[in-house]
Amino acid sequence: MGICNTEIGNTMMIDKGVQKLRFRSMEEVAQKYSHHESFYGWYFPNEAQLQPYFIDECVKYVNECADFAQRLTPNCVNL
Predict the structure, then answer these.
(1) How far apart are CA 64 and CA 14, in angstroms?
(2) Cα–Cα 20 to 30 A to 78, which of 15, 23, 39, 60?
(3) Crossing angle of helices 7-14/56-72, nearest 10°?
(4) Is 13 exposed, middle or buried (0-12, 13-18, 19+ CB in 10 A)?
(5) Rounded distance between C-alpha atoms, residue 51 and residue 1, angstroms
(6) Can you give the pTM of this predicted structure?
(7) In sequence order, which residues have a C-beta less than 8 Å from that of residue 20 and are 6 or more positions away?
């Protein structure tokens, strides 16, 4: 079972304090590495959560992360 289908995973996806830390970490990664040619973009490894479909919290979590990543690094790819 993946993180999106667990109580801990659900808490991590909806907790605003955890989101703040996640976004701060993404800012740090972007600041340190996004200027490198090898920094292609962001990967959100959530495809394993299709059991049998993504729960709403997981979809919202990935969309929020992807939106934030796009604002940080508009020329990069989100996977």
Answers:
(1) 11
(2) 15
(3) 40
(4) buried
(5) 8
(6) 0.80
(7) none
